[in-house]
Design goal:
42% helix; Arc Repressor Mutant, subunit A; 113 residues; single chain; 4-stranded antiparallel sheet
């Protein structure tokens, strides 16, 4: 099991502050890879390769397919927990797991307790 401040990831499951988050196998693989390097910014091409499980044929994909994929992953997390700041966009570069999400979501965390 891997964890960073309030996020626990097992081989098959994701829990955020104890709340289970349902993810597809691909979403889990992508999030697990990002979580292994919290704060590191992953480029779109790195994440496309990871999502496809091999070097991705970018000619067959639209520029925004990864953006939609990350949007769905964020939506899964938001619907399950209400938290929106776990995955950050780094404009013109890519995405990262925000290792300081806990501090950014503090007001919601306090309200739950």
């Amino acid at each position: 099991m891997r964890s960073i401040k309030g996020i626990w990831l097992t081989e098959t499951d994701l829990y955020i502050c104890g709340t289970p988050v349902a993810l597809t196998v691909g979403q889990h693989r992508l999030f697990a890879h990002m979580m292994n390097h919290p704060g590191r910014v992953f480029t779109r091409s790195e994440l496309d390769d990871l999502r496809a499980g091999q070097p991705y044929e970018r000619a067959t994909a639209t520029r925004y397919s990864l953006d939609r994929y990350i949007g769905r992953l964020r939506g899964q997390i938001r619907r399950a927990t209400g938290y929106t700041k776990i995955i950050s966009t780094v404009k013109s570069v890519g995405y990262q797991v925000n290792q300081h999400w806990y501090d950014l979501e503090w007001e919601k965390l306090v309200a739950v307790r």
